[in-house]
Queue: 2 jobs
Job 1
Amino acid sequence: MLANRQILLIVSGSISAYKALELTRLLRKAGAIVTGVLTAGGARFVTREALAGITGQRVHDDLWAAEAEIGHIRLARLPDAVVVVPASADLLARMAHGLADDLASTILLATRAPVLVAPAMNPAMWEHAATRANMAALRARGVTVIGPGVGAMAEAESGAGRLAEPDDIFAAVAGLLAPSARPLVGRHALVTSGPTHEPIDPVRYIANRSSGKQGHAIATALAALGARVTLVCGPVAVPDPPGVTVHRIESAREMLAACEAALPADIAVMAAAVADWRVAREATQKLKKEPGAAAPTLTMALNPDILATLSHHAQRPGLVIGFAAETERVVEHATAKRLRKGCDWIVANDVSGDVMGGDANRVHVITANGVEDWPEMPKDAVAGRLAARIAEALR
Ligand SMILES: Cc1cc2nc3c(=O)[nH]c(=O)nc-3n(C[C@H](O)[C@H](O)[C@H](O)COP(=O)(O)O)c2cc1C
């Protein structure tokens, strides 16, 4: 699995950096080609010579010197995987914020290869709200995290923060590069996300509370499994998922047109909260409040049904998945919706609480074979599980 695979190993500033040498030995024994990159912090703990000796390759530690030798973009594009061992709190923070202020962070921002990080730090640093937020952001972007573990540390302090063992990191790297880790390579997935805005006049619109968090997480998870992903999304504040083609639209009609333009696709996951109705006649000028006049009456028209349209399309994707947002009799309504729309699965969620805009979701997956009740979990975990389920169905 690892024979002749290119691994870029970034070593950052932690006392546990010496273990990166043992990991390198294991990777090379398995036939991998390992290129070492040292951060300024990493170079305080492991010498350039030690890393060069054990990788058998030139070590890169300076953005500007690397530029002259090979180019930072080439360094970012070459590897099959980028592995950060150990990952210091500082480097993780720089990754989470998209900084590119040294060679390591620039490679991490420029690479399209899967990224694995093995954090190592003092337990107080690991538990700090800043580190936790950084880790949540990295996980949501599809970065694989191994460890840290609990156990003896350099400081006499207890808690999590100890670098994962080289054997375990080696297994995680092998897992990252296994063909089964990217079962959706060669597949095109179309995902919708967020709300739609239905205009009333040039300044007003009708919307809903969808944040796009769940749909965007699904696009990220499908891309992480190797799919080429087209994301059609309404107005949202969440950032674009990396490595995904994003088409921004406003109304349901624009969403349908963008979805049809994206076909053919193997998978369609319709997670957007599409408005059922629009204002029948959008005013071309701002509606004016005239003194003494009654409030205007808005006449509504039915919007196109995107899920039903794709389910009956001449270029119907092989697997069409709809979402149902229900506030009562969730499974019953969603089961009826699956049959009515002609889609393959419905992912039903109870949106009577704070699901819309929140970070957690509890869903029921309704297929032709019955209902699966999934426990409540973070939206990115729901996305990961759904993507794995999709890969299994297409196998
Ligand atoms: C002796 C010593 C041990 C350190 N160990 C760690 C560590 O295990 N994890 C960590 O995140 N930072 C650790 N630090 C702090 C980092 O080295 C420091 O934040 C540095 O700026 C990280 O640089 P880098 O991002 O270039 O790797 C340690 C510092 C010293 C002086």
Job 2
Amino acid sequence: MRVLITGGGGQLADSLEKTCPAEREILILSRQQLDVSDAGAVTEAFERQQTEVVINCAAYTAVDDAESERDRAFAVNARGAENVARAARQLGARMIHISTDFVFGGDKSRPYSVDDDTQPVNTYGASKLAGEVQAREACPAGLTVLRTSWLYGVHGRNFVKTMLRLMRERDRLQVVADQAGSPTWAGFLADVIWRFAAQPSPGTYHWADAGVASWYDFALAVQEEAMRQGLLTKAVPVEPVMTEDYPTRARRPAYSVLDSRLAQARLGIRPAHWRSNLRRMLAEMQDE
Ligand SMILES: NC(=O)c1ccc[n+]([C@@H]2O[C@H](COP(=O)([O-])OP(=O)(O)OC[C@H]3O[C@@H](n4cnc5c(N)ncnc54)[C@H](OP(=O)(O)O)[C@@H]3O)[C@@H](O)[C@H]2O)c1
């Protein structure tokens, strides 16, 4: 089966490459090789490759910058998703489109199911939601939308790597304690995506690691596990702060835990707890 992956060089595309099952033939295209916001280029790339499944990992993910670069965020996350979906349909290929917990408003206190109302609170979330809608319109039958949350992996920029760097550089840290979500390891999410690639599953699904954490909980766990594995040599005090004490250009949902049960039932697998996946990621980091 030929699988084309957009957004090469990003953390999820990298994990997909590392976990690719032996029977798959993959082609991973970076932004430089395929700009998804260029409709003609997308059509041409897909025709050339005779793809059966497309995994759209290309995204504008700079959540704060999106507030001042709205057009760029929508060009990639909305129009880009539509371009990929249209080209996939023209070829008769299936598409797995990756989306985000940030499509939700964050005012709930129980995990968001796939049918819950969306209400993004920032431009990034709005552009990703528009991408879901436009991709569905362009490729109604062959589209799987897979929303995930708080993604991190060995490759690329993410919270875990930022915390490790700051814990080496600083004497103390302050981390937001009143936003809750589910940290999700790209290594396991990649395995989930390969399972979706193996069976047509049109519709919307959620996948996140099990358990709930605040950014503060997550930071403390990073420090504890990294100390245990010898990636950090000293512990620095980590203090909880409130969102209002740590202003950012983009608002974040206060609660964006995803209910992954539909995907679990569909694939017959269960997520590991986020903390055990954090251990696996740090071990992989040490091996590298
Ligand atoms: N990171 C998270 O916490 C998180 C949480 C929930 C959902 N997600 C979703 O998960 C997916 C994968 O995210 P990720 O964490 O792997 O993001 P990432 O590391 O930022 O990777 C995104 C990739 O897309 C590329 N890209 C940007 N503009 C493009 C364009 N016009 N055409 C083609 N490629 C383009 C980027 O290239 P450049 O680096 O060269 O710009 C980068 O390689 C995205 O759909 C994201 O919205 C992420």
